[in-house]
């Protein structure tokens, strides 16, 4: 599979089947988050470092941003959404997955950064981390319907797709994929 010429794609991971397939494209960018000690855009062991809350990309340079279970691991996920909106071209899309509770009106904020300190608002929850497999990574937010409202306030047209494609390995009763579409300039 090859990407159409001139389609600029940014993937927030540097491993896996999607990365392997897309990495053949000329306008493909990928990164990991290695910690606050690095500046966005730095290379760490040959891989690009990016903080989604302050991306190094210029304005309106990407057609597609992909992230899979990433936004819940940052203290200000809507700052990341604003940054993604900024770097997307008009007509661009952010396709992503996050932990989502469709029965909750509001996001479940499990931790907050207050005065530079992590304050836990609920029991600590960690997910596996491919960059630091021995440590795990903190879950700051489990998203609710509030996320769709916040995306619309940023300027996106949000949509959710409940996928069930057993022949493609997508199984389960609640396999949600979100699309945040940046409308064309009018």
Please characterize this protein's 3D structure.
With 186 residues, the protein is an alpha/beta fold. The chain has a domain at 9-100 and 144-181: 3-Layer(aba) Sandwich (Rossmann fold). It is built from three helices and 14 strands. Strand 8 (111-114) and strand 9 form a beta hairpin. The protein is globular and about 45 Å long. The chain starts with 8 loop residues before the first strand and ends in a 5-residue tail after the last strand. The mean pLDDT is 89.
Low-confidence stretches: none
What would the principal axes of the Cα set say about the shape?
globular
Please report the number of helical segments.
Answer: 3
Category from helices, strands and their pairing: alpha/beta
What distinguishing features does this structure have?
single chain, 186 residues, alpha/beta, Rossmann fold, six-stranded mixed sheet, 3 helices, globular
Give a summary of the structure in a few sentences.
The chain is built from three helices and 14 strands. The protein is of the alpha/beta class and 186 residues long. A hairpin with a 2-residue loop joins strand 3 (43-44) and strand 4.
